[in-house]
Automatic annotation (TrEMBL):
Gene Ontology BP terms: fatty acid biosynthetic process
InterPro entries found in the cross-reference section: KR_dom, NAD(P)-bd_dom_sf, SDR_fam
EC code: 1.1.1.100
Family, similarity comment: Belongs to the short-chain dehydrogenases/reductases (SDR) family.
UniProt keyword list: Oxidoreductase
Organism classification: Bacteria, Pseudomonadati, Acidobacteriota, Terriglobia, Terriglobales
SMART domains, A to Z: PKS_KR (SM00822)
Residues in Ketoreductase domain copies: 8-199
GO molecular function, one term: quinone binding
Protein name: 3-oxoacyl-(Acyl-carrier-protein) reductase
Length: 261
């Protein structure tokens, strides 16, 4: 299937690790130009070097997305260097466990800055270029927005708000032909997820207990499976009449009867 993304400029926040990395790879495979906006870590450096070795270089701008000024600078960099933006994938975030009892209002607000405010800031600053290109926004949310989890009020609030903003922006941007959709993963074995598993007494047993509950195939969702949905949604050629959607890529985890597991 030709997605028509060749030469398109796509920004992926947190695009050098986990799900974001898979999205970046999928976009590069389509010959799109990817600008990763992320803070730096060993993972990130390793990924950027690997892409250079594979002769699929992606651009990178270091940003602490919780600071709106750094979001603005990242978008200005894209404007100056490429002069266009066709797709924005808002992806960076982490389930940080700021719970109703375990957190406090300051930590709640800080978590919203880490998980939500930059989704708005990136879309806000990118808007003129996205309108010009009749581009597409994909917000990576989470099944936590639909199911809750317990002990993670701020993350749940951020992920739920991302779904609401998907509908709100899809409505606001109808006149400009800019489509807005969200993808909801449930269980994907990313570096973030591995760090969480490693906090369990027996990580292998914890992983097995989770995969046992995933109806389709009793396995984790691959990052590439989230990425495949995301590049489809970025493609105006193939998903040109798809907007305001919440697409759940989770092997039936969120919706199927527990009796099936
Ligand atoms: P990941 O492996 O940690 O990758 C996220 C990347 O974004 C990391 O490089 C991270 O940097 C970076 N990042 C996070 N917050 C940032 C900030 N404020 N400023 C700059 N960079 C930032 O995480 P992932 O598991 O792929 O998660 C990606 C998205 O999927 C998140 O929105 C998450 O909520 C969602 N999600 C994941 C799962 C899952 O099962 N993995 C399930 C549901 C939803 P550091 O490494 O320095 O933190």
């Amino acid at each position: 299937m030709d997605l028509g993304l060749k030469g398109h400029v796509i920004v992926v926040t947190g695009g050098a690790s986990g799900i974001g990395e898979a999205v970046t790879r999928a976009c590069l495979d389509e010959d799109a130009k990817v600008v990763v906006v992320s803070r730096v870590s060993e993972n990130v450096e390793h990924f950027i070097e690997e892409m250079q070795r594979e002769e699929k270089p992606c651009d990178f701008i270091e940003s602490h997305l919780e600071d709106p000024a750094q979001c603005r600078r990242a978008v200005e960099y894209v404007q100056q260097k490429y002069g266009r933006l066709d797709g924005l994938v808002n992806n960076a975030g982490a389930n940080d466990g700021v719970g109703l009892a375990s957190g406090d209002p300051d930590r709640f607000l800080e978590s919203l800055r880490q998980n939500l405010v930059h989704y708005y800031a990136m879309a806000h600053y990118a808007l003129p270029m996205l309108k010009e290109a009749k581009g597409s926004i994909v917000n990576i949310s989470s099944k936590v927005a639909l199911t809750g989890q317990g002990g993670t009020s701020a993350y749940a609030a951020a992920k739920g708000a991302q779904l609401a903003l998907t509908r709100e922006w899809a409505a606001e941007l109808l006149p400009f032909g800019v489509r807005v959709n969200s993808v909801l993963p449930a269980e994907v074995l990313t570096p973030l997820y591995k760090r969480w598993l490693d906090t369990r007494d027996d990580p292998a047993a914890a992983l097995k207990s989770i995969t046992n509950k995933i109806p389709l195939g009793h396995r984790m969702t691959e990052g590439s499976e989230i990425a495949a949905m995301t590049v489809f949604l970025l493609s105006s050629k193939q998903s040109g009449h798809t907007t305001a959607q919440h697409l759940i890529v989770d092997g039936g985890y969120t919706h199927l009867d527990r009796a099936l597991t």
